Amino acid sequence: MLEALLRVHVTCPWISELVKESSDVEIVSCRPVFKGSGASAFVRFRSQVDARILSTRVSSHPYVVKARFQTMGKNSGVGLVESIQCPCSRLGLSYMHVLGIRVERGSLVFRLLVQDEKEVQEIVDGLRRSGVRFRVENIRRIRAKHFLTPRQEQVLLHSYLNGYFDNPRPIPLSKLAKDLGITPPSYLELLRKALKKVVSDSFT
């Protein structure tokens, strides 16, 4: 497996609201929702601003349907943003390739997991056809055994944000699965695999 870092000169419309009060913003997982070019993004960030204030400010963007942020530690947190327009949808990148997206001024740095050099070239060719400015910054060979897939990481963060690990659970499993457009058994299986990888990585 190869890990490729790809800098693309586009940015999400709502990101500007978040970076005003935050630093080290990373889009952990982004998935298409709604019709057309909408997306659901899970983000990590560092900020001294209260998570509720961030939720209000990002929610005020006209393209944002829902934004919810939660503090995870001192000056750090995670959030979920659903929007009706996402520029990444026109890039032609497979969401299954994307391990994460680092937000930098005027650009997004995609961290991609691909099988081989041929797959990297196919991605590059697709970006050239899209007409966006981009640059391949690094390619390296990795062992992907303990990597969470984007979908597994999305389910894990979604579970945490919605209180799945709390007692009592505020939201039933059926609602969590419906949020992501999958069945409850599929949701549980993704969560099980994600937790297994996290535990395995911690003790090996």
Task: Describe this protein's structure.
By secondary structure, the chain is α+β, with helices and mostly antiparallel strands. The protein folds into two domains: 1-143, no CATH class; 150-202. The protein has helices at 15-19, 51-59, 117-130, 150-161, 173-179, 184-202; strands at residues 2-8, 23-32, 39-46, 64-73, 76-83, 98-104, 107-114, 134-141. Strands 4-5-3-2-6-7-1-8 form an eight-stranded antiparallel beta sheet, with helices on both faces. The longest helix is centred in the C-terminal third of the chain and has 19 residues, at 184-202. The two termini are 20 Å apart.
Concise overview:
This is HTH DNA binding domain protein. This protein has two domains: 1-143, no CATH class; 150-202.
Strand order of the largest sheet: 4-5-3-2-6-7-1-8
Q: What is the 3D shape?
A: globular
Given as residue ranges, the uncertain stretches (5+ residues, pLDDT < 50) are none
Helix fraction by DSSP (H/I, runs of at least 4): 25-40%
Mean pLDDT: 85
Specify the biggest β-sheet.
8 strands, antiparallel
Pfam family, one: HTH_10
Domain HTH bat-type: 148-199
Protein name: HTH DNA binding domain protein
InterPro entries: HTH_bacterioopsin
